[in-house]
Design brief:
The chain is mainly α and 479 residues long. It is 48% helix and 5% strand. The strands form 5 sheets. The protein has a two-stranded antiparallel ribbon with strand order 1-5.
């Protein structure tokens, strides 16, 4: 993990005045004039933009709730309770849910950080090649954050420059999701042209050309442009930069972060500096004390469901490497059946301060997206089979049977993504993308709990209150 070296020192640049994207004080003109002057200033501003990804409203907490806990993969320990994540888990969310409020605010803070870089970098005195790379990085980060917003909320405000006055902040209205996707595609198209294939030294962890291509492929898949998705993902495969690690277990140790299968990770670093991750603390079984995690509070969040445990085929080595069905209490010596994920193990420096990165994109994801895109575009061809079977081979599973129909192959890809990418933030958005969310989730609940409108989340009430004319609530949540 290298990029984190600079995040703490840069993060404070954007900390002031960022309490709410739609309720901002004007930017101090003197500070702007005296900063953003050279490459060093722009690197600090850009690294602060990376740091925003670690916030609770982004990958630090909110993202795994909306992407995993919302799905049939995981649950919160207080099922049926009224905590924000339990409400989300049980599809009982209102517009005052704190997770979605913080997600909206923090993600727009991240977008502001990217816009700040893009607005000022043209006037900075610096090498133009480095300038172009920084532009590519900022556009990638902005695209990633808008992608998370549009998939979560649907139509959202599209803001492409600094908000410099309170009145301007209040004026931004939601725009159709098609406009958001068009901007994401434009940002990623430019990013892939400007970004390098790889980095060395302290730059490891920054966005690369492969990351831009992989995310663009996922965007095309999401909007059902399957031919473009297939072609873009093939570019990532053909680039030759990434490979499946031989051992699935090697993906997760903190010492092996940013490995050859990794395409983009959000970088965390423990040590009491505010840049550590809380995943293992939050995911350890509630009431397990120090039996699972040795430092800090065991949160009991994002725990595997019985459906998730049952999803693995017999002989799939990923099951025992991805989850445990319980633990031995170190006080009583008794076994406690309380499942939890094994993918984020570390000994925190203090409570919620560990070294685990969040894997946003990795090569197995690309192979499975490619198989899906090929199948949707042309049916289950040899190329589609080869991609999914490469992932299955590492899991010590037999290849898929030949001759599957297009529909059967699609379900096979859905299943493979669930078990390969479990607990990594893909399942809910996969189900929404394929139109399977209502069917799968109602089977999971064994009753009609989920409806079509649940494909997106409620807009935070605070944002509606700020701009009631421009920001209306999503259908189904007006209660």
């Amino acid at each position: 993990m290298k990029l984190h070296t600079f995040i703490l020192g840069s993060f404070c640049l954007l900390a002031s005045g960022c309490s709410d994207f739609l309720d901002r004080a004007p930017i101090d003109a003197t500070n702007v004039k005296n900063f953003y002057r050279n490459a060093s200033d722009m690197q600090a501003a850009l690294t602060a933009a990376y740091g925003m990804l670690t916030n609770n409203g982004e990958y630090g907490y909110a993202y795994y709730n909306v992407a995993e806990v919302r799905s049939d993969n995981t649950m919160n320990w207080e099922g049926g309770g009224n905590l924000p994540d339990a409400e989300l888990d049980q599809f009982k969310m209102s517009s005052t849910n704190e997770i979605i409020r913080v997600m909206w605010v923090d993600t727009y803070r991240g977008i502001l950080a990217c816009n700040t870089v893009l607005d000022h970098i043209g006037a900075a005195e610096m090498d133009d090649a480095l300038r172009q790379r920084f532009i590519g990085e900022a556009r990638f980060l902005r695209a990633l954050q808008y992608f998370n917003l549009v998939r979560t909320f649907g139509d959202v405000p599209l803001v492409l420059s600094e908000t410099k006055s309170v009145d301007e902040g209040y004026s931004h209205a939601r725009v159709p999701s098609a406009e958001i996707y068009a901007q994401i595609i434009a940002d990623l198209t430019e990013a892939e042209q400007k970004l390098p294939v790889s980095y060395t030294g302290n730059d490891i962890g920054r966005a690369t050309r492969g990351a831009a291509k992989a995310l663009l492929g996922k965007v095309y898949l999401t909007i059902k442009d399957f031919t473009k998705a297939k072609d873009k993902l093939q570019e990532v495969i053909g680039q030759g930069t990434y490979r499946l690690l031989d051992d699935y277990a090697a993906l997760w140790p903190v010492a092996n972060a940013n490995n050859q299968e990794s395409i983009f990770e959000v970088q965390f670093k423990k040590g009491g500096t505010g840049t550590g991750s809380s995943f293992y603390s939050n995911f350890a079984p509630r009431n397990s004390g120090s039996s699972v995690i040795k430092v800090g509070f065991a949160g009991g969040r994002n725990n595997p469901t019985t459906d998730m445990i049952a999803a693995y085929e017999k002989g799939d080595i990923r099951k025992g490497l991805s989850l445990s069905e319980g633990y031995t209490d170190n006080v009583t010596g008794k076994y406690v059946a309380d499942p939890y994920t094994l993918k984020y193990q570390d000994t925190p420096f203090t409570d919620g301060d560990a070294d685990n990165n969040w894997m946003v994109l990795r090569y197995a994801d690309v192979l499975l997206m490619y198989a899906e895109a090929v199948n949707e575009a042309t049916g289950p061809s040899t190329e589609a089979y080869d991609a999914i079977n490469a992932v299955r081979k590492r899991a010590k599973l037999a290849p898929l049977p030949a001759g599957l129909s297009k529909a059967a192959f699609a379900l096979a890809v859905e299943h493979e993504r669930q078990v390969e990418l479990a607990f990594e933030g893909h399942r809910w958005f996969d189900l929404v993308r394929t139109g399977r969310a209502v069917t799968v989730m109602n089977q999971h609940f064994k009753s009609t709990v989920v409806q079509d409108f649940n494909a997106v989340f409620p807009i935070p009430q605070t944002q509606i209150d700020i701009n009631p004319a421009g920001i209306k609530q999503n259908p189904g949540y007006n209660f």
